[in-house]
Predict the 3D structure of the following.
Amino acid sequence: MNIFKLHPDGSVIYYMLEREIYLNETSRKYPYFYDCGDKIRHYAVCPACNNPIQIIGLFRKHTESPLYAKHIPKTIPDLAEYRQEAYENCPLAAKRNICAEKGQKKRGNDGISKQLLNIIEKNFDRIVYVLQRSLGIYVSARLAENLLDDYLKEEAYLYKYASLINIPWMLAYFSRSRSLVRRIIHDEDIRKTIQKKVADATFNEKGQLIVKDDGKIRILFYFTNHNIKFEKGFTCESIDMEIYLSIMGRKEKICTKTISFDYDYFRYMRNIPENKGRRNGELIALAQDKPRRYREDRKKFTFKDS
Ligand SMILES: [Zn+2]
């Protein structure tokens, strides 16, 4: 992997793995610089699964293999506890292509689920913004709330491949089919395709999709096909957004947009301090306490991982 963080705590940020960044962020201190007797090993924490990782090639020459980090199957004292289940579910540990299925729930006691919900509560506006940018569709507060409700009702935080770095896209992946009509569509390709394939569809000056006969024709979208690929040493994840036409109940495909997860942009947004940058109070308020309230409603569900 090419990212790292310093603590398993879910609120902390993560960094691109570059030598100078690693040296500065760790201050070259214990436990990141770990004296193993015969040599000093370099450690950090996996941003996706909270397991310890080892930095390989920190001081290697350019001609040798590039700097990277890999999971290590043991607890590093004072840094991170090793959890096998979290490792097995970690997309950054995949090293194999996975066609994930929604049925592949659930996580057990690996500590990630609770962190996912904490991150959502504190960063919901940023998560929605990252998702909106990926989709090319404006996500209104109402739609954001619908997505969050579906996410909680589907218990997406227990999904095997929900990780700390793919939250915005998991919010989409677990949502039900929704209408695209009256939504503002920024993605030019989607706009053109809809206009080409649906004679009654137009866009107004705000970029909202307008359909002449709302009653009979519906344009909807949903998400499918969560893919985790290991390519050129890195993990890439994607989901497909399916846009389709429903005429009197008959389904006709309009287009598929493959949404590649932009881990880097999500990292950038998460790294902006909580009190800095533009925050959307409406979205933050909307997510505030929602997971907790939801959990209380579902008495049967309890976290074992404090
Ligand atoms: Zn991991």
In short: Residues 3-82 form one domain. Residues 168 and 198 are 29 Å apart (CA to CA). The longest helix spans residues 112-135.
